[in-house]
Amino acid sequence: QVQLVESGGGLVQPGDSLSLACVASVAAGRTFGDYSISWFRQAPGKEREFVVGIDFSGGYLHDSNSPAARFTISRDNAKNTVFLQLNSLKPEDTARYYCAASGLLLPPLRPNDYQYWGQGTQVTVSS
To answer: Which end of the chain is more exposed for a tag (fewer CB within 10 A), N or C?
Structure first.
């Protein structure tokens, strides 16, 4: 069992940066490092979209169509935390950002392959 809590969202202007965090609580018998963690986002009226994922060792994966070229993911297993640095934000990046945990070795791209989700944090980019 994993509980995830995101933080760091807010209202920013185009070109600004934000740092999101996802803190996990992991049930006894497992460790944070047992899970690959990914960030997804969902804008109103749109499907949930994979942004970028990270495996237990810090290797990251992003879909070629994702905005991850402007975003950086990292993790601190000692603090049960995954970070997402959002740079050069654009209005189209406005969405609710969710972190999710999977027991798979590599972060999957599909939302259905994740067993645990946080409640999300809202990112709004507007001038």
So the answer is: C
The neighbouring-strand residues paired with 61 are 53
Q: Which amino acid is at 83?
A: F
Q: What is the chain's alpha carbon radius of gyration, rounded to the nearest angstrom? A: 14
102 Rama class: left (phi>0) / alpha (psi -120 to 50) / beta: beta
User: What is the separation, in whole angstroms, between the first and last Cα of the chain?
Assistant: 40
Tokens 């609580």 appear where? 25
Segment 48-97, tens digit of pLDDT:
999 999 988 777 766 655 665 788 888 999 999 999 999 999 999 999 99
